[in-house]
Amino acid sequence: MLVNLVEILKIAEEKKCAVGAFNTPNLECVLAVIAAAEKLEVPVIIAHAELHEDVAPLQKIGPVMVQAAKAAKVPVCVHLDHCETLSYMQEALEIGFTGVMYDGSTLPYEENLANTKKAVAMAKAYNCGVEAELGALASREGGGANASGPVYTDPEEAVAFCKETGIDALAPSFGTAHGIYKSKPVLDLDRVKTIAQKTGLPLVMHGGSGVSPEDYRTGIANGLRKINYYSYMSKAGTNAVRELLDKEDVTFFHDLALAAQKAMEADAERAMRVFAGKNP
Ligand SMILES: [Zn+2]
C-alpha cells in the first residue's frame, strides 16, 4: 500500500528501527526491492534520484513505482531522491510521489533554507513528506567528489534549520559517502545522537550501502530512521550477470535482467534484515 514519508518514518520510530530506501531506476530494481520487503513483511521506500533521469525518466518510471507501491502487501513510500530543482519536484508530486528529498546542500545556508521552505509548502499541498540535507557528504550522489570536501552538520544549525523549514526528516553529514567505499568509513555516530535529540526529527543516512552491520545498529539506536542503500545492491546485480555470462552462452537479455533482479532482491533482503533489527 502507498503511504507517505511521514507515515513510514512513524512506523520506524515506533519500532525503533530504520526503513531502507532503495533507488529503483528500472523495473528489475522495483520488483526486487518490493519482493524483498514483502518477504520480510517490512515497510520500504523506493526512490528515484534526479541523477538517474538519463537511466529512467521520471515521467516513465514514476508511474510504475507508484503503481507497484499501491499493489504491494507492505507499506511503501515513493520518494524523490536528491531533487535539486523545484520544477522537477513538482513533476514528481503530480505523478503521486509521497516523499521528496530537497537537496540544497551545495547552496549557501540562506538559499538552502529558503528553497527548502518552498519545497515544504509545495509538498504539503500533496500530503507528501519532505527530507532535506544540511552539511555536505564527502561525495555527491553518483560518486563524484564534493568540491568543498565533507562538511559535518552542526547540531545547533540543524535545530534552527528544522524549526524554520518545517521538514519531516533531516539528512545530516556525519562521515558517510555516496557510491562504493574505497576504505572503511569512519562515522561520527555521537553526532547523529546529538542531532536526533536536539531536533526531535527522524534522521537519514545517505551512502548507506557499504556500512558495517555494527555501525548500522549503533546509528539506528542513535536515531537513524531511513537508510539509503543502492550502490551495493546494484553491484550485486552486475556480479550476477557477469557470473551467468561466464558460465553460459546467454542469448536473451531478459535472462540477464532476471539474474540481476534475483541477486538484487537477495542483497536488498540482507540489508532490510539489519535495518529492521532482524537476525541475519
Ligand atoms: Zn544520497
Notes on the protein architecture:
- The chain is an alpha/beta fold.
- It has one domain: TIM Barrel.
- The chain has ten helices and eight strands.
- It has an eight-stranded parallel sheet, sandwiched between helices.
- α2 runs parallel beside α3, α6 packs parallel to α7 and α9 packs antiparallel against α10.
- 48% of the residues are buried.
- The model has no long low-confidence stretch (mean pLDDT 94).
- Bound molecules: zinc ion (ZN).
- Zinc ion (ZN) binds next to loops.
Helix/strand order, N-terminal first: HEHEHEHEHEHEHEHEHH
Number of helices: 10
Name of the CATH first level: Alpha Beta
Report helical residue fraction: 40-55%
Helix/strand-derived category reads alpha/beta
CATH architecture grouping: Alpha-Beta Barrel
Q: Overall 3D geometry?
A: globular
Counting structural domains, the number is: 1
Query: What do we call the CATH topology?
Result: TIM Barrel
Distance between the termini: 26 Å
Assembly context of the chains: single chain
Attached small molecules? zinc ion
